[in-house]
Design goal:
With 271 residues, the chain is α+β, with helices and mostly antiparallel strands. The chain has 3 domains: 57 residues, no CATH class; 78 residues, no CATH class; 99 residues, Orthogonal Bundle (Arc Repressor Mutant, subunit A), CATH 1.10.10. An 8-stranded mixed β-sheet has the order 7-8-9-10-11-12-13-14, with no helix packed on it. The termini are far apart.
Length: 271
């Protein structure tokens, strides 16, 4: 049987304060096919809505390949309250923009030319307050993160736990000469160049000369494992306590000897 095709055209002319919009709709089909339904906006010469033979819906495109394809920005919600705007284009990156009472509150997206996901409160996407790079590393206050979590700024927390189970370690040995290490470490007072804040701590290069295991070169600048210094301080305290105990034992021995000498002198004086 010869395929049956038909076409219906409806021209709409709508008078608006800023001009005239003309649109036509068309339906085409073969026998046994589903209908294609198209709305074309002649003013901007673009497809406004199309429903394909396979049931896909396109808005702003005449060739939808998914259940819904939209060529343009999308807003979901109430413009007078809260809504989400999905934005993309040839010169802008894909973004989710969150609004509340008409004001932009936050953005999520991949900045143009970048490979990381950025989340930022406010009306801009960059610099991101939180970023996730292509390897899954997270940066807070910085888009550059070589570790699972990199924070550019101060961190406040109730506590931190470090992996320290015996089953995770090998070549275990007791730390020696910890007191000498502590005596050679220099605490300094300084100001951070970026913020001017006064602080106290170590100079990484100086720590590296004494305990190189505490210093990392994985980033642009050296870093110090401040938490691991606790192990050195504990062993240094034990070494110092051993010295104190030894000295106390010597003092007791001297006191005993002095008492013996005094008793001997007293006996001699009575003879």
């Amino acid at each position: 049987m010869k395929p049956l095709r038909f076409f219906v055209s409806i021209t709409l002319t709508i008078g608006l304060s800023y001009g005239v919009i003309q649109a036509w709709t068309g339906l085409t089909a073969s026998e046994g096919d589903t209908l294609d339904y198209t709305i074309w906006n002649e003013l901007v010469d673009k497809v406004s809505l199309i429903t394909s033979t396979w049931g896909n819906v396109g808005i702003g495109t005449d060739s939808p390949s998914n259940n819904l394809d939209v060529n343009g920005n999308v807003s979901i919600g109430d413009d007078t309250a809260g809504y989400v705007n999905i934005k993309w284009g040839s010169t802008t990156s894909a973004q989710l923009i969150f609004y509340d009472q008409g004001t932009q509150r936050a953005r999520i997206g991949v900045p143009t030319g970048e490979t990381y996901l950025s989340l930022r409160a406010g009306s801009a996407l960059t610099p991101g307050h939180i970023v996730i790079n292509s390897t899954g590393n997270v940066g807070i206050g910085t888009p550059t993160t070589a570790e699972k979590l990199t924070v550019n700024g101060y961190v406040q927390a109730v506590g931190y736990y470090y992996s320290s189970d015996r089953v995770l370690k090998e070549n275990i040995s007791s730390l020696t000469d910890a007191l000498d290490m502590v005596e050679n470490l220099r605490w300094v007072q300084f100001n951070w160049k970026e913020t001017g804040d006064m602080d106290i701590g170590f100079i990484a290069q100086e720590v590296e000369e004494v305990v190189p295991e505490l210093v990392s070169h994985k980033w642009e600048y050296r870093s110090v494992k401040y938490g691991n210094i606790t192990a050195i301080l504990v062993e240094a305290l034990k070494e110092q306590q051993l010295q104190i105990d030894t000295q106390q034992q010597l003092l007791q021995d001297y006191e005993t000897r002095i008492d013996t000498l005094e008793n001997t002198i007293q006996w001699l004086l009575t003879q």
